[in-house]
Amino acid sequence: MPPLAIRAYTATTALGRGLDAQASALRERRSGLRRNDLTPLAAGEAPLDCWIGRVDGLEGAALPAELSQWESRNNRLAWLSLQHDGVREALAAVVARHGAERVAVIVGTSTSSIGATEEAYSRLRNDGREFPEDLARPTLHTPHSLGAFVADATGLRGPCVTVATACSSSAKVFAQAARLIAAGLADAALVGGVDTLCGSVLFGFNSLQLVSNAPCRPFDAERIGLSLGEAGGYAVLERLDDGERAALELRGYGESSDAHHMSSPHPEGLGARLAMGDAMTRAGIDAAEVGYLNLHGTATPANDKIEALAIAALFPDTLHASSTKGWTGHTLGAAGIVESAFALLALEREHLPGTLNSVVPDPANGPQIRFDSADTRIRYAMNNSFGFGGNNCSLVFARP
Amino acid sequence: MLSAVIESVGYWSRGLPSWEAACAFAVHDDLVADAPARPSPQLLAPNERRRAPETVAVALEVALAACQAAGRDPASLPSVFVSCHGDMAITDYMCATLASEPRTISPTRFHNSVHNAAAGYWTIGAGAMQPATALSALDASFAQGLIEALAQIAAGDEAVLLVGYDGAATGPLQTMWDSRGLLGTALVLARAPADGRARGPVLRAWLGDDPPSPLDGKLSRRETGNASAAMLPLFDALASGHDRLALPAGGGRTLRVELAHD
């Protein structure tokens, strides 16, 4: 594929707002997880006994008055995440070069603003038939709430779509943007993803018995499940001029399906291998050239084992691969953009994170899966994001 | 400009359970006498077929019909699934349960609540390891899905399956979005053959600023209450042999579509 320039990127997670907060927490091995303090909407229910990666201060971060009709926890995080690391300046620059109609908005999420729908249901009026007045805003209660909000908040007028393939959502946005730009429908794109903690994800994952009651321990022999988190992030992608090199580039994407089960991965990790292989083929590199791989690594017993098998089959022992879920929790539809940002940070700042909270490697782990960090200059970094429905996406980034 | 051959069409709504039935209605006002009340996708095992949410059932039904009509192996096609609201009955269930007894959420209903449930069941049922995506863009959903499918072909895929569907709103949620009925459509889109002998109408599409086509075709008027109705001018044109239309594409823009019928 033709490489794309990454003009700016950012992430906001339980570690803080913007890239410096992410980078310092990764370097200092400081987790953003805390004991779950989200009170359920149902009266008399105690919070689930688990740990979460909650973004501080969202409750007080109201949207600007002109965007107030979009108020929801998810849209607040979408707005907050947009204010860092030169993303708005990079957008202004691509709009100046190409026009707002030539800049696409492609964002991923799993739950969008459904937290607002949940809240409306907990405060129904008129014998349970009507939404409360303050939440009777239809554009909150639909999956495209996120994309429509981001387009409105940025004024971008190119193709605008919300990708919702569960936990692969905001990795696939890079692939979709690359195709759209290659096909000539846009010259640049704002890609990203936002997901916020809400009852659907906490009690939903709990119903699948996938939530740990302690901070998650990816790839540890004793891991028992995941920690859920919330996050937002973006990247500004732009077509490269002939012969131009950017400081950071998207070089490849690979997508696949497991064709196996809605909520458990293919037992041999075939889908994961296909996605990683295709991403490297598109980037024109072989496995030995990848310097860092941010794993999906949710810390559930089955997922990590299968990802470990796939990594051992594809990569030489020299690869540094890690899961950063111990820092942020599993941020679901935002995992793709957050961990792409971590991969880009590894390229730029030459620090490869390890795996937080994990002590005893699972016997299935190959030598590629590292618990300790390393300081190394690398040229290529990769990110894996796998989701429900067996939906996989891998991305390759480069620092030319 | 993007282009592709439409190799086949899948269609299901209550009373019009196939593309043939939809064409007969669009041209002669014929209705199917004993149409099934619910789609019954053969791709799913019998117990899953009964339990599948209606949105999943209709999406799989039209997807399989389109693959069979095109003579394409379902496992061989990358797919794009578009739905404005996903499954509103499940959203209603999740929100109502969370408001009363959150610890009783059904694990099956939870994993069916993801927007890519239909895409997931499709890839599992078809044995398709090809990429699948699931998109939403309100009334621009189908146009954005069509753009993505055409972009995949432009990026090198030989053929792509595009599926659009929406079901009915239930519970308090219907005071926000009152979608009615059950509607699914599918297209197998393929790269135009080098020898020019296309196996179906050739579609060309580009973004413009003209207003979207009115929903005045027979299929459009019949399903006007469904959240996916904005896609129907394309299917009315395919059924009636018309050659120009515009679908809402978001941000006040439209996707202009030109059809060269074979």
Question: Summed up, what is this model?
Answer:
The complex is a heterodimer of chains A (400) and B (262). Chain A is of the alpha/beta class.
Task: Describe the overall structure.
Chain B: Residues 33-187 form the Beta-ketoacyl synthase-like N-terminal domain. Chain B: This is Beta-ketoacyl synthase, N-terminal domain protein. Chain B: GO terms for molecular function: acyltransferase activity. Chain B: It holds the Pfam family Ketoacyl-synt_2. Chain A is of the alpha/beta class and 400 residues long. Chain A has helices spanning 19-28, 73-81, 87-98, 114-122, 145-154, 169-182, 199-207, 270-283, 301-314, 325-328, 335-349; strands at residues 4-13, 16-17, 34-35, 51-53, 103-108, 160-163, 188-195, 228-229, 231-239, 249-257, 290-294, 320-322, 351-352, 374-375, 380-387, 391-398. Chain A is globular and about 65 Å long. Chain A starts with a strand and ends with a strand. The mean pLDDT of chain A is 97. With 262 residues, chain B is of the alpha+beta class. Chain B has a single domain, classed as Thiolase/Chalcone synthase (Peroxisomal Thiolase, Chain A, domain 1, 3-Layer(aba) Sandwich). In chain B, 34% of the residues lie in helices and 23% in strands. Chain B has helices at residues 19-28, 46-51, 54-70, 88-100, 107-112, 117-126, 141-154, 218-222, 232-240, and strands at 2-13, 79-82, 132-136, 159-166, 183-190, 202-208, 244-250, 253-260. In chain B, strand 7 (244-250) and strand 8 (253-260) form a beta hairpin. The longest helix of chain B has 17 residues, at 54-70. The interface between A and B is large, with 72 and 65 residues.
Biggest chain-to-chain interface with counts:
A-B, 72 and 65 residues
Largest sheet of chain A: 11 strands, mixed
Sketch the topology of chain A as an H/E string, one letter per element: EEHEEHHEHHEHEHEEEHEHEHHEEEE
Percent of residues in helices of chain A:
25-40%
CATH topology of chain B: Peroxisomal Thiolase, Chain A, domain 1
What oligomeric arrangement do these chains adopt?
heterodimer
What class would the helix/strand composition of chain B place it in? alpha+beta
| Strand residue percentage of chain B | 15-25%
**Cα-based radius of gyration of chain A, to the nearest Å:** 20 Å
Spatial order of strands in the largest sheet of chain B: 3-2-4-5-1-6-8-7
- Spans of chain B with pLDDT under 50 lasting ≥5 residues? none
CATH fourth-tier homologous superfamily of chain B:
Thiolase/Chalcone synthase
CATH class of chain B: Alpha Beta
Gyration radius of chain B (Cα, Å) is 18 Å
CATH architecture of chain B: 3-Layer(aba) Sandwich
Per DSSP E runs of 2 or more residues, the count of β-strands of chain A stands at 16
Tally of DSSP helical segments of chain A: 11
- State the low-pLDDT regions of chain A, or none: none
Order of helices and strands of chain B: EHHHEHHHEHEEEHHEE
Domain Beta-ketoacyl synthase-like N-terminal (chain B): 33-187
Protein name (chain B): Beta-ketoacyl synthase, N-terminal domain protein
Organism (chain B): Lysobacter antibioticus
GO molecular function (chain B): acyltransferase activity
